[in-house]
Design goal:
The complex is a heterodimer of chains A (309) and B (458).
Chain A: H1 7-26, E1 32-33, H2 35-38, E2 40-47, H3 53-62, E3 69-73, E4 77-82, H4 96-108, E5 111-119, H5 121-149, H6 156-185, E6 188-189, H7 191-220, H8 227-258, H9 265-296, H10 300-308
Parallel strand pairs in A: 1-6
Antiparallel strand pairs in A: 2-4, 2-5, 3-4
Chain B: H1 2-24, E1 28-32, E2 35-39, H2 52-55, E3 57-64, H3 71-88, E4 94-98, E5 102-108, H4 113-121, E6 126-133, E7 144-152, E8 156-163, E9 170-176, H5 178-191, E10 197-202, E11 205-208, E12 220-223, H6 230-244, E13 249-257, H7 259-288, H8 290-312, H9 319-348, H10 353-388, H11 392-424, H12 441-457
Antiparallel strand pairs in B: 1-2, 3-5, 3-13, 4-5, 6-7, 6-10, 8-9, 9-12, 10-11
Helix pairs in contact in B: 1-8, 1-11, 3-6, 7-8, 7-9, 8-9, 8-11, 9-10, 9-11, 10-11
The chains are: A alpha+beta (309), B alpha+beta (458).
Chain lengths: 309, 458
C-alpha cells in the first residue's frame, strides 16, 4: 500500500476532524467542566426510589441553590453540582450540606450521600494553569528526548518536532471530541481528563517512535535512496505492530469502561479516543510531516493550511 | 547458551516465588541489624495500601489565609491537626504539607466531614498553669493540682528552639509581653525553690511541666531538661508557636467518599483487570502462537512483579492507580509484539529460529527503550502536576504507570526472551510455523515491501 502517496488525503481528513472540534469548542458551552476546573461542590446522592428531577430542582432552589445542576446517575442516583457549599458558621449553625440532606430526606425519604467534593475557585484556576504547563512541559521534554535518541540521524530535531506535532494533533482532536461529547452526553472535563490527555501524548509519541526507529534503521541499511520510499516501507513494516498494540490497549480500556468506569470514566474515554487517534497519527501524520519538511523545505504548519484550503 | 538460559530461568523462578510469598503474606517485617523494613497493610487485598477512594473517608485541603506564612507556622498547623485527628480516633490519618502554604489531610474511615472540619478548624488553646504538688518530697510530683494563673498563648510573644550558650544542650526559649512577663514573674517567684512547677497545656494536653530555679522577671525564659533532644525542643517550640499565634486556614478542597462506593469500585476494577488480561492473553496465544504463549507467561510474571513493587515502595493504590496498572498491561504487551513481529521478519529472510529470535530482540530494543522512556517522561510530569494540588488520583495513576512501564521492559527483555529461547532449544523448534503469527495483514506488508523495491528497480 502506498501510504506516503495518500498523505494529502490524510492531511485533509485530519484538518476536517480538527475543524469540527474547533467549531464545537468555539460554541458555548465549550466544555462541560468538572468542579476541579470551575470550583464549586458536587454531591453524589442515592435515593431509596427513583425521584422526579424537577421536584428535586425546585427543592434545591427553595434552599437557595437555584443554579444547581441536577443530573441522573442510574435509576436512583443523582449528581448535584452547586456553588461551594458553606460549612457551619462559627456560631454553630447548620451547614449547607446538612440543610440539603435534611430537606431532601423530608421530601423524598431516606437518602445516602455517597460522595461530596468541593473545590474553591482560586484553586480551580490554578489547576487549569498547571494543566496547561504540564502538557507544554511534557511536549518540550519529549521533543528534546527524541532529538537526542535519534541524534545519529540527519536533522534529528525534525523527528522531535514531527512527533510532538502529531501528538498535539491527537490532543486537539481529543479535546474537540470531548467538547462535542460534553454537549451530547454530558461527558466532563476534569483532572482525570488531563491525566488522560498526558497519557495520550505519551502513547502517541510511543507509537510514533516505533515508526521513526524503523525509518532510522531502513535509512542506515539504505533500503532505498528515495526518502518517501524508505518512509513508506517503514510504515508498512510497523503497521502490523501498531494495529495489534492499539487493539490490545483498547481491549483493556473497553474492559474497564464496561465495568462502570466510576470516577475515572473521563480518563477512560480520553484514552479510548486518544489511542485511536494516536495510532492513526503515527501512521498518517508523524512520518509524513518529515517528508513534507524534507521535500518542500518548509515548516509543516504551512503545509497543513494548504491542505485545509 | 542453553545453560545460561537455564540459570536465568532459575533466577526468574526464584524471583517470582519470593514475590508471590511477599504478596500472599499480608504484612511482614524484615529486620537487618538496626534497620527494620515493615511493609503491608492488614486491610487491603494482598496487603496493599488502599487510597481514600477505595477505602472510603474524607480528604481535605487547607490553605493558610496569609500568603507569607512561614514553614514553622505551617508545621505548627500540621502538628495541631495531627494531635486533633489522633484525639478524634482516626486510624492512620495522613497529614502532609503541600507546597509552602497548603496542607493535605486524609482521614480514612471518617464519614462526617463537618465534624472533621469543626475539629480541625478550632482555634488552639495554649495555657500556662501553676502546678501545686501535694507531696513536696516527691521529685516526680505525681500527686498535684493545677491552677489557672491567667497566662495564655496571647501573652507569649515568641517561642523558639536553640542551644544553651554554655552547656550546648538543646533548650526552648520563651519570650512574654509586658503582661505575660508580670504574671510569669509572679508565678516563678512563688514556686522558685519549691517542688511546684509551671505546666504548659495545648488544647488541654500537657506539653511540658518545668520547675523554676529562681524568679524570672524579665519576660525571657528558657526550658531545659535532661531528656531534651533537638527533635524534642523543636516540637515543643512549634507547639508553643502554634498555640501562641493561631495560623488561620481555610478549606480549599474537600472530598468525601463512601466506603461501600470504594469497595464496589475496587471489585469492579479487579474484574476489569482480569477480563482485560484474559482477552489480551487469548489474542496473543491465538495470533502469535508460541511467542504468544511465552509472552503471556511473562505478562503474568509482570503483573506479580508490579504488585510487588507497589507493595514494597509502598504505593497507595487509588482507583486511577489501578487503571494505570491495567492500562500498562496493554502497553506491556507492546514490547512482546514488537519482538514477535521482528522475529517473524527475520524468519522470513531465511534465518534459523534461534538466530532469528536473537536478531529480533536486538532490532526491537531501541524502539522499546525510546518509546518507553517517552512514556516515563510524561509520567514524571503527570506526577508533578498531580502533587501540585494533592490530586492523589493523578499521582497514583502516574506512579503505577511508571512502575508498570519500567517493569515491562524488564519482563519483555529478560523474562520472555529467556523463555522463548528455552522453548526454541526444545524439539518444538522444528515447527518453525508455530513461531510466526497467523497469516494475515503481515504477509501483505511483506509483499508491499517487495513490490516497492521492484517498482524502484523498474
Amino acid at each position: 500500500m502506498d501510504f506516503v502517496g495518500k498523505r494529502k488525503w490524510f492531511f485533509i481528513f485530519s484538518a476536517i476532524l480538527i475543524l469540527v472540534g474547533v467549531v464545537s469548542m468555539s460554541i458555548s458551552p465549550r466544555f462541560k467542566v468538572g468542579i476541579e476546573f470551575e470550583g464549586g461542590s458536587a454531591l453524589s446522592l442515592t435515593f431509596a426510589q427513583a425521584v422526579d428531577e424537577d421536584r428535586l430542582r425546585s427543592a434545591m432552589s427553595d434552599l437557595g441553590h437555584g443554579q444547581a445542576v441536577v443530573q441522573r446517575v442510574g435509576d436512583t442516583g443523582v449528581l448535584i453540582r452547586t456553588t461551594t457549599l458553606e460549612g457551619p458558621g462559627n456560631d454553630g449553625g447548620v451547614s449547607e450540606r446538612d440543610a440539603i440532606e435534611e430537606r431532601l430526606t423530608e421530601e423524598f425519604g431516606t437518602i445516602e450521600i455517597s460522595e461530596l467534593s468541593a473545590v474553591s475557585e482560586a484553586v480551580a484556576k490554578e489547576t487549569i494553569r498547571n494543566a496547561g504547563i504540564a502538557v507544554g512541559v511534557a511536549a518540550l521534554f519529549i521533543m528534546i528526548y527524541i532529538s537526542f535518541a535519534f541524534r545519529l540521524m540527519a536533522n534529528s530535531m525534525r523527528l522531535g518536532v514531527a512527533a510532538i506535532v502529531a501528538a498535539l494533533h491527537d490532543v486537539i482532536i481529543t479535546l474537540g471530541a470531548f467538547s462535542i461529547l460534553g454537549k451530547v452526553v454530558d461527558l466532563e472535563v476534569n483532572a482525570m481528563f488531563i491525566t488522560g490527555i498526558l497519557t495520550v501524548v505519551g502513547y502517541s509519541v510511543h507509537d510514533t517512535i516505533v515508526v521513526f526507529d524503523r525509518i532510522r534503521e531502513n535509512t542506515a541499511r539504505r533500503v532505498s535512496r528515495d526518502m518517501s520510499t524508505t518512509i513508506n516501507i517503514s510504515i508498512m513494516e510497523t503497521i502490523g505492530r501498531s494495529l495489534t498494540t492499539s487493539l490490545t490497549t483498547l481491549t483493556v480500556i473497553v474492559a474497564l469502561l464496561l465495568m462502570g468506569g466510576g470516577t475515572i470514566e473521563s480518563l477512560l474515554y480520553t484514552l479510548l479516543i486518544g489511542v485511536i487517534v494516536g495510532t492513526y497519527s503515527s501512521i498518517a501524520i508523524a512520518s509524513q510531516l518529515l517528508l513534507v519538511w524534507e521535500e518542500r523545505g518548509m515548516n509543516p504548519f504551512r503545509r497543513r493550511e494548504e491542505a485545509e484550503a | 547458551m542453553f545453560k545460561k538460559d537455564l540459570r536465568r530461568l532459575v533466577f526468574i523462578i526464584a524471583l517470582v516465588s519470593v514475590a508471590v510469598v511477599a504478596l500472599l503474606v499480608d504484612t511482614f517485617d524484615v529486620g537487618i541489624g538496626s534497620v527494620s523494613f515493615e511493609r503491608g497493610d492488614e486491610d487491603g487485598p494482598l496487603g496493599l495500601e488502599l487510597g481514600l477512594d477505595l477505602q472510603g473517608g474524607v480528604q481535605l485541603i487547607y490553605e493558610a489565609e496569609d500568603e507569607n506564612v512561614t514553614k514553622s507556622q505551617m508545621e505548627g498547623v500540621k502538628d495541631k491537626i495531627e494531635r486533633r485527628t489522633n484525639a478524634f480516633g482516626v486510624t492512620e490519618p495522613s497529614i502532609q504539607l503541600l507546597g509552602s502554604n497548603r496542607i493535605l489531610i486524609q482521614l480514612p474511615g471518617v464519614e462526617d466531614v463537618e465534624e472533621a472540619k469543626r475539629l480541625i478548624g478550632q482555634t488552639a488553646q495554649l495555657e500556662f498553669k501553676e502546678r501545686i504538688c501535694a507531696d513536696q518530697g516527691d521529685p516526680q510530683c505525681t500527686n498535684f493540682q493545677d491552677q489557672d494563673i491567667g497566662l495564655t498563648g496571647a501573652l507569649l510573644t515568641r517561642a523558639y528552639a536553640s542551644t544553651h550558650h554554655a552547656t550546648g544542650q538543646p533548650i526552648v526559649n520563651l519570650e512574654f509581653n509586658g503582661e505575660g512577663a508580670r504574671i510569669f514573674g509572679e508565678t516563678t517567684n512563688r514556686i522558685a525553690g519549691t517542688n511546684n512547677r509551671t505546666a504548659i497545656f495545648l488544647d488541654g494536653e500537657e506539653i511540658v511541666a518545668p520547675v523554676a530555679n529562681q524568679a524570672i522577671l524579665g519576660g525571657q525564659a528558657f526550658i531545659q531538661g535532661p531528656d531534651f533532644t533537638f527533635d524534642r525542643v523543636r516540637t515543643i517550640s512549634i507547639q508553643l508557636e502554634g498555640g501562641r499565634l493561631d495560623t488561620p486556614i481555610v478549606v480549599i478542597q474537600e472530598q468525601n467518599v463512601d466506603a461501600t462506593l470504594g469497595e464496589d469500585a475496587l471489585d469492579k476494577s479487579l474484574v476489569a483487570g482480569l477480563i482485560g488480561f484474559g482477552l489480551v492473553a487469548m489474542f496473543m496465544v491465538l495470533y502469535y502462537r508460541i511467542p504468544g504463549i511465552t509472552a503471556v507467561f511473562s505478562l503474568a510474571i509482570y503483573i506479580v512483579l508490579v504488585l510487588l513493587v507497589v507493595k514494597l515502595v509502598p504505593v497507595t493504590l487509588t482507583l486511577a492507580g489501578i487503571a494505570g496498572f491495567i492500562l500498562s498491561i496493554g502497553v506491556a504487551v507492546d514490547a512482546n509484539i514488537l519482538i514477535s513481529e521482528r522475529t517473524k521478519e527475520e524468519l522470513r529472510t531465511g534465518r534459523a529460529l534461534l538466530g532469528a529470535i536473537e536478531t529480533g530482540y536486538s532490532r526491537a530494543w531501541p524502539a522499546i527503550l525510546n518509546s518507553n522512556v517517552a512514556t516515563m517522561i510524561t509520567c514524571v510530569i503527570l506526577f508533578w502536576f498531580g502533587s501540585r494540588f494533592g490530586a492523589s488520583a493523578v499521582t497514583g495513576f502516574s506512579i503505577t504507570l511508571f512502575i508498570g512501564v519500567a517493569t515491562s521492559m524488564f519482563t519483555a527483555v529478560v523474562v520472555s526472551h529467556t523463555l522463548l529461547r528455552l522453548v526454541a532449544s526444545t524439539p518444538l523448534s522444528r515447527f518453525t510455523g508455530m513461531f510466526t503469527p497467523v497469516p494475515g495483514q503481515v504477509i501483505t506488508a511483506g509483499a508491499g515491501r517487495r513490490s516497492q523495491a521492484q517498482r524502484e528497480r523498474n
